[in-house]
Amino acid sequence: MKAFIAAAAAALFVVGTGPVHAAKKPQPTPTLYQGKPNEDAAKALLEVALVQSGKNGSWERIGAGRVYYLGGFKAEGQAVFDAILAGEHEDSDVYRIARVYAEAGEWARAKPLFDKFLAGNRDDAKALAEVGAHYLMQGDRATAERMFEQAFKLSDDDPWVTENVAGAYLGVKPQE
């Protein structure tokens, strides 16, 4: 799917700007979005964004996948996530994808990715507070409070940690 999206974006680019500029990365132009239905405009722009991201832009590709996924094109977003996770990737990629699932209200998908990230990053106070907040909002207060305790042991003077924990008790989702 990733190859198809990249090929489609490249073809769109060549057709839209001519072969003289084919070596350059595509850029968004008004022809991609002006006068088009919202979904078509978004898809055309996301195809360009994926090509702009290149092979090594996992955070950027996750960003495009997030827009696909949350924008109603789950299969396209999932294809982006699957391609990233199937290859060599950073722990932070797992974390960012888990955040998308959490934002989509899909705790069953987010939880194992969050847990995987935390297993390798036990000293990340912000992540412990954020993931703990998600646990609390899912009704698992005991696990959440263990994570909060660990987060505060690691960093008792970080307002972001404290704010995420406080927010969780009020049902406020953690801020990225």
Automatic annotation (TrEMBL):
Mind telling me which InterPro entries this protein's record contains? TPR-like_helical_dom_sf, TPR_rpt
Start-end of the TPR repeats?
A: 125-158
Alphabetic keyword roster: Signal, TPR repeat
Classification via PROSITE patterns: TPR (PS50005)
The record's Gene3D superfamilies line, in alphabetical order, gives: Tetratricopeptide repeat domain
Please state the span of the N-terminal signal peptide per the UniProt entry.
1-22
The identity of this protein, by name, is: Tetratricopeptide repeat protein
